[in-house]
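Section 5.1 Outputs to date
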Amino acid sequence: MPLRKERSSAKFIIVAKFLTSKALNIDAIIRTFNPLWHTINGFKARSVGDDVILFVFDDEEKVEKIFRGKPWSFDKHLVVLKKYEKHSPVYTLSFSKVFIWVQIHDIPVRFRNKKVAEDLGTVIGEVAKTTKLAEMEGGSFIRIQVRIDITLPLCQGKIIALEEGSEDWVKFKFERLPNIFYCVGVSITVTRTATYGLIAMVPSMIRSMVFGFMPHLLQIHGGR
């Protein structure tokens, strides 16, 4: 039987994957997110299994605002959100990527601009090109929003090569990461520093997986 668009629900749906080994309590989830999302008409939530929850809204603008505020977490565990477009079964959705704010430290002052920051960000993942300049300014650092693959190791930093032949190291610090982060199929416990850096409370072998990086050179040219 053909199903046409006009027969679908007019509701706006967020599909949320809770990266936790704990059993989910719908009532606790609603109590947690209702005051955070400030919805006028509230929302409905129901489990579809495999730690996936559907959040149903009447207001599309509220859904957009929730996505602008991500990443979200519940009980210190990462929650991966996706918009449900109503044309695919929920079980076919992938929850391997999330947008994270990343601070880039120690860029030479004359190169501390949006273009250089975006070039550096490609080392980590897909850079959000819509980030406003005012959101990027961080005083001693510059910040960008990057879509990262949470199944891959996090990149700790990057070697940059300057025109005069010298090299520098720039550091990446990830903002608002939850205490439990999934990497290479392994659940690891981490804690945040005052500057949003990460310290993995795991054996050194797993630590190297999490903070692993390939120190490829990024050539920085003057006048950018």
